[in-house]
């Protein structure tokens, strides 16, 4: 190839790269903001994290400001920004149940909300620091309390649709998750959220289908919401079996450490995944989280060689379960026993990624904390006991006073 041809190709390649950069910079020029502010309807399950992109903005706006209102036209508006658009929050540092002001992040004009709660439902506006809005969302965070689970292997089916005249209440399911285990029988599931179809909804709320929005949308009148409160989110579970990919997950550094601490001449035990050690007090509760997992991920738990399937261990399957998996993929152990000792392995998206070696001890002095569930339960039972004793004591004395007054009257001596 001659020098001239090479020069032409390099010039063309550079032009294509420059064109791509210009396209990325001018993406907001291709998406004009609507003249009349509309709300995109979006629904999520509690404890999920979600992202709201700001799809349009004026060219002269270099940093966006996000606003939150519980209801349209509310006088109380939260400002979700540092007025520079550079507020960064790590998901691992966010605590469940904290206020939304410490559970959000703004990156490239998009709003990220971590561990969303039903209280976060409302309207989100993308605008300027002057209060000019140019894009908005209608977000519905549905609670996972009372979530209904259906196991297809047992022949169970999702909830039936509900009809109230022209109102149609139904469940919209997401895609199936990957198999949560590989090489052995696993499970996969899909999350279903509550939606409704009704004519006459507000035209200010964008809908993917005509007259269809999520049950908690601001477009739903209050009189219709009362008919949808019993249609809870659903979880559909079925078994699966997929092969494992060959992955060498043992690091040389880990192998060297185990060779060093092992006895001379003996074969060291090398774990397949990183192991975390934890010591728990006998009779106290424990919650184990899978590293990097989110509620929408396919997460599985094993205790040593025992597979903890959701068919038996999902929260709500049995009200008396001491060990269960909640809808956020956390493993709960209530009132730890000596039999709970062992290694708990965590699978994420079909790959085993971590292990937790649990040891249970009853020795040592541990100061009680009011934040512990066991301490709170003991205090509640104690207060209830004192209250019952007080009620019985007062009732007995009132009865005695009544009898004494009744027998001391003149008619009592006749």
UniProtKB/TrEMBL annotation:
Source organism of this protein record: Nannospalax galili
Membrane topology summary: Single-pass type I membrane protein
A Pfam family assignment: V-set
Main location: membrane
Signal peptide: 1-18
Name of the gene encoding the protein in the UniProt record: Fam187a
Gene Ontology cellular component terms for the protein in this record: membrane
Residue ranges annotated for the Ig-like domain, each copy included: 268-346
Keyword Glycoprotein part of the UniProt annotation: yes
The UniProt record lists the keyword Protease: no
Stated name of the protein: Family with sequence similarity 187, member A
Keywords tagged on the record: Glycoprotein, Membrane, Signal, Transmembrane, Transmembrane helix
Matching InterPro entries: FAM187A/B (IPR039311), Ig-like_dom (IPR007110), Ig-like_dom_sf (IPR036179), Ig-like_fold (IPR013783), Ig_sub (IPR003599), Ig_V-set (IPR013106)
Cellular location(s): Membrane
Bilayer-crossing regions: 383-403
